[in-house]
Amino acid sequence: MTDQLVGDPAAGRRTNILDHLDHRTPGHSLPGALYTDPEVFETEIDLLWRRRWLFVGTVAEVPEPGDYLTFDVAGSSVLVIRDDDEQVRAFHNVCRHRGSRLVAPGNGSVGNLVCGYHSWTYATDGSLRYAPQLSPDIDRACLGLRPVALREVGGLIYCSLAATPDGDLDLAADQIRDYLTPHRLDRAKVAAQVDLVEEGNWKLVLENNRECYHCEGGHPELTCTFFPTWGLSEDQVPDRLRADHDRYLFAEADLMRRCDELGIPHRLVEDLVERPFGFRIQREPLDGVGESFSIDGSRLVGRLLGDLADPQLGRCTFHTQPNAWIHLLADHVVTFSVTPLSPDRTLVRTTWLVHEEAVEGVDYDVEALTAVWRATNEQDATFVRNTQLGVADPAYVPGPYNEAERHVDYFVRWYDAQIRSEV
What we know:
By secondary structure, the protein is an alpha+beta fold. 30% of the residues lie in helices and 23% in strands. The strands form four sheets. The chain has a seven-stranded antiparallel beta sheet with strand order 11-17-16-15-14-13-12, sandwiched between helices. One of its GO terms (molecular function) is 2 iron, 2 sulfur cluster binding.
């Protein structure tokens, strides 16, 4: 075994991560090394981030031919671009000549993709158009940009770095699309986008998102509209929150009635543990007026998305393993993507979308639109940073999850199953 590990460092790293998983107590948080060990991190990048479907953005971020965005993950830079035929495509952001990056990180718009090094030029469909002094004996058709697998579901864009991506997203898409379609992301635009680097492991970022056990005292802005009893069963609701929970049940019944009348799907669809593309989607009520993420729950954008006429549609909440959660409301959409940077640093990108014809300063105010989630993200960053410090402490012993943290347990079980499936 020693000779094998010396000759194959990756095998040694995989043995290492399996050893930690084998010592995990079911129903408890992960051993500290799974949040801190650089070898574990490298193994996760190889086994998960280079092989699973990852949320990278929305069609609203590339609305016109030549518009592009980049998504950097696992050492790779992915270029997502709308081509001249209106098709959204993805390519490796690597010139086929000597490997230079074609575009800098971020968003932009081009007529053609021109490498700044030697002026090799590619069409928006990835084909090579111009290469100075290239020998006529070389087949230019073989020198197009290398494609990256891309799937668009209801306006959400997912990519996979795998040479042969699994088909699980395609199977899930039919269950998901009808929930997203009423919001017409193809007729939306970006109102704001904020990148926040959290000082914690990517799994801690996801775990923090997967429960609202901390919301009552941790997110005063969010819980103006996000019911504090979310995730609790009837027998777990404390007396001090009974009035909040009764209000939630009333709002839920009213929302279900509205959705049924409008033909908008709302029921829970959840498959978070066993499948590679683990996901959960459901339409849920908001507190207060029930329209948007504002202090009183009233709408933040005057122009509703798509052809929606009723602003009181709560929030359609959608999250996917391993890197996204999304809230779709009648007046706007908020998307969140997670990208691991190092064992203890994670990029969280938040994007706010509004109707393409909504006018800033008339139909919405950017500061008001983004206020609740900017505050919530900063609060979550503090929770994640403090937890990262704790799991790195020799005194850390994994603790038990309670019922309100069942989605955290689902995520950890998914993580365990996906790692084992790839080793």
